[in-house]
Every structure is written in C-alpha cells, then in structure tokens.
Design a protein that fits this description.
The structure holds 2 protein chains of 2 kinds. Chain A is of the alpha/beta class. Chain A contains 10 helices and 10 strands. Chain A has a 6-stranded mixed beta sheet, with helices on both faces. In chain A, helix 4 packs across helix 5, helix 5 crosses helix 6 and helix 9 crosses helix 10. Chain A is globular, with a radius of gyration of 19 Å. Chain B is mainly alpha-helical. Chain B has one domain. Helices cover 63% and strands 0% of the residues of chain B. Chain B starts with a helix and ends in a 15-residue tail after the last helix. The chains are: A alpha/beta, B mainly alpha.
C-alpha cells in the first residue's frame, strides 16, 4: 500500500540535538531528583545507567513531558518543554515506555497498540498497519489478538515496547525495557533498538551494563541527579582496567566511575 | 476517529459504569414498586438514587496510566468536558426514563438539577483528589440530604440541602449550576494530584 507522505515528515530538522538539557532540575514529589543536569543527545542509542535513586526515572518522565522541569532548560526535538502549548507536535513524535505501565487488562495487544497510536494523533488510516508492524517488530504477532491480562510479564513488556514504537518516534524513551525478558528476547530487543537508533534518538534506562555495552552507541551515567559520565561504551571497558568491582570489564568501569564521582563529591 | 471511541470507552470501563448506574436505578424502582402502591418516589429516596446513579461514572474519569495519557499528543480538555457532560446527561436521562417503567423520580427540573450538581461534584472531586475518591463527597452529601428533608429556611440551609429543594427553588438551581461549572472547569484542567512513578501501576 502506498502511503502519503506528510509535510511534517520531510520538513528539515532544525535542532542540533533531540534532547538538550542545561542545568535541568526536576522534582519527584518534594525531592529534587534531577539536580542540575547538562545533557545533549542526538540520533543513536543511548544507555542511561545509574544506581537506584539516581534520578533516572524522573529524568525519563521529564523527557517524556509527564512532569515539567522545575529549573534549567529542556529542549525536546527543538521545542522548549516548559511551553506546554507548543508540545503537542513534539508529543506526537515521542515514544515512551514507563518503568511500570498501567493498561486496560481486557484490551487485546492490538487494541492497546492502536489506542496508544490514536493518543499520539496518528492519522486513523495509518493506525492498523502501524500497529501490526509494531507488534511484529516486538515478535508478538502470534499473540496480537490475545487479551493483555493473559500475557506473561515479558510479553507485557514487549506490548509496552510496541506501543512506544508504533508512531515511529523521533525520540524514544524506554525505562527499563529489558526487565522480565528472557536472554533470547533481550538479544532480539538489542537488535530492535539498534535498528531504531539509526534514525531516532533512543534513550534506554537500565541496570544491565552488558545491555548498554552490547546495544548502545553512547553511555550516560548519572548519580544523585547529576551527570557523572558521558561517552562510548568502550570507555567503560577501558576504565574498568583501573579497578572497581564487577564481573566484567564494563561493570568494573561502571563502579569505578561511580566511586570516582562519589570520592570527588566528598 | 470513530473507530477509537469504542476503544476509549472500553478502556475507561464506561459500559460497566452505565450498567451499574442503570442497575442502581432499577433496584430502587423495583424496591419502591414492591413496597408501596405510590408511583411517585419519596423525595429523599430520589436524591439518594440520583447519587447512586451518578457515582459509578466517577472511576471512568481517569485512565489506566496517568503518565502515558499525559504524554499523548491529543488535547485532553475538550474530550474531558465532553465525557463529564455526557455522564451528567446519561444520569438525568436514566432517572427520567424510569417513568417509562412506572416509577416517577419527580419532576424533570429537579432531576436535571440534581444530576448536573452531582456530576459537577464528581468532576471537582476528580480534579482535586483523583477519580478513585471522587464518589465519596457526592454520595455522603446526598445521604445527609436524604435524611434531612426540610426544604426552605435560611439561604445557607438551602445551599446545604440543595438537592431536596423544590424544582423552582433558585438557590438550589444556582448551587447545582455552580458545582457543574466548577466540576467541568476543574476536570478539564486537572485529573487528580500528580502520581509518582512508583504508584503508576497501582492506578488500574
């Protein structure tokens, strides 16, 4: 089927970075979870690492326009995230998988993905094909017409990924997408995000250092709401030679960087 | 767009809410018919029935994932207003329709006033406290009015007992209108207090 191409799709990109944050401050409740973060991310797959409570999920929520920044500036696909009125178009080009997501349990996978596509204001005629494609990409085609409540944890996670990629987003935010996936699915998932990362800015928050090394072109490490390190995964491996605890070079690099940062902070 | 309206209604559990609302009215009507010969339902019971018919719609005012709904591109406020007003129309319509099966819940004017005020209170409750708790105030208030059936008196008492005032009463109508306006505006702007990331999955 031939699809009409909208003006929006061929419009030139007018922003240097998909995500551009300067001195970003975001609160989670009363706690300042993201505290003066500077970050610029473009096309590619970026892994967001950090210990529990580092502010990863809060940062993701701010990037997904769920919460408004409490300070600093945040530009998403060239639009200022503080200007709620202008965010509508940006939101249509955004995909987001929360760490825990709510859903109507009696929806089938297809219903759910189509409904989310509609919320992202996809043209109605494009929705069925886009939903089918998203479901195929996460390898749930054989379960497409099963109800969500009948799915296992890993399948549900993949349904969540399907809704996040259904609109072919320019900015894709995945908060711990590999939780509950078996090793084979994780390898498939890495392939999928590598493919998506060729055209979009994909930010994957995770605790699994090996996922980042295997699938990401860029590593962002944060702790206590601040940026600790930004570089390529090979940096982690290289830094791992300096010491740090862990079973793989990358894990040692991760813990070494955190220890360095905490030492410096004191 | 029309393809997605059924998905929206299902995800908000509207069919179940309509069934619960109609069921409440039917139960009261059946009980009344079984116990009295009078077709005209007692005013206090009318008020309570209106509340029982309105509260099932409270949970439909919030989605299954507040974060994902908030990131949606489509503008929510007009849709929320439409949803809330449609709930009010449905409650009033169901109460008036009970006449077709022989139970009279009182004059239309009073039914419309009460349905509008109750839906407004539910919308306001959703905006301030979240959809899960929005049923409490309207139901409790209606229960109090069901027991204190003394229309008239000083202005403040007419405001407090707005649902049991006669249909022509101005203060009752203004009170209901104010609740409807506050509910529609409040719900258009806000759906409950912000939900933290950890609570998101508990919303369903």
């Amino acid at each position: 089927m031939v699809r009409a191409i909208g003006a929006q799709e061929i419009a030139p990109t007018r922003h240097a970075w998909a995500i551009e944050a300067t001195a970003l401050k975001v609160k989670a409740g009363r706690h300042l979870a993201v505290d003066g973060l500077d970050l610029a991310l473009g096309t590619g797959v970026h892994g967001l690492l950090g210990p529990n409570g580092a502010g990863k999920s809060t940062l993701m929520r701010a990037l997904a326009t769920v919460v408004r920044p409490n300070g600093g500036t945040l530009r998403l696909l060239g639009t200022d995230a503080a200007r709620t009125r202008e965010l509508r178009r940006t939101r249509g080009r955004l995909g987001y998988l929360p760490q825990q997501f709510g859903y109507y349990p009696r929806f089938t996978v297809r219903d759910y993905v189509e409904y989310m596509a509609w919320l992202r204001e996809m043209p109605a005629s494009a929705v069925p094909a886009a939903a089918q494609r998203a479901i195929e990409r996460v390898r749930l085609a054989d379960r497409a017409d099963k109800r969500l409540k009948s799915l296992s944890g890993g399948m549900l996670r993949r349904a969540g990924i399907a809704q996040a990629i259904v609109n072919e987003p320019d900015l894709l935010l995945l908060d711990e997408p590999t939780v509950g996936l078996d090793p084979e699915q994780r390898v498939e998932f890495r392939e999928l995000i590598r493919e998506l990362g060729t055209e979009a800015c994909v930010l994957v928050s995770t605790h699994l250092v090996e996922d980042v090394v295997a699938a990401c072109s860029d590593v962002v490490l944060m702790d206590l709401g601040k940026l600790v390190h930004q570089g390529v995964p090979a940096d982690l491996v290289r830094l791992g030679e300096n010491g740090g605890v862990g079973d793989s070079p990358a894990e040692r690099g991760y813990s070494y960087l955190l220890a360095q940062h905490r030492g410096g902070a004191r | 767009m029309s393809r997605f309206v059924p998905l929206y209604l299902r995800s908000r559990r509207v069919p179940a809410a309509v069934a619960a609302s109609a069921g409440a009215i039917a139960a009261v009507a059946a009980a009344w018919a079984g116990m009295t010969k009078d077709a005209q339902v007692n005013t206090g019971l009318t008020v309570l029935t209106a509340a029982l018919a309105a509260v099932p719609f409270a949970p439909t005012l919030a989605g299954n994932d507040a974060a994902l709904e908030k990131t949606a591109a489509l503008p929510w406020p007009p849709r929320r207003v439409l949803h809330l007003v449609a709930c009010g129309v449905l409650v009033a319509g169901l109460l008036i329709a009970a006449r077709l099966v022989g139970t009279d819940f009182g004059p239309e004017k009073a039914l419309v006033r009460n349905a509008a005020g109750l839906i407004g209170l539910i919308g306001l409750g959703t905006a301030l406290a979240g959809a899960r708790h929005a049923w409490q105030v309207p139901l409790a208030w209606a229960a109090v009015q069901c027991l204190l059936q003394v229309p008239g008196g000083p202005g403040w008492r007419q405001v407090a007992l707005w649902m049991i005032q006669p249909p022509e009463n101005r203060i009752g109508a203004i009170t209901a209108g104010a609740f409807l306006a506050a509910g529609v505006i409040g719900y258009a702007l806000r759906v409950g207090p912000p939900v933290s990331a950890a609570e998101a999955s508990l919303e369903q």
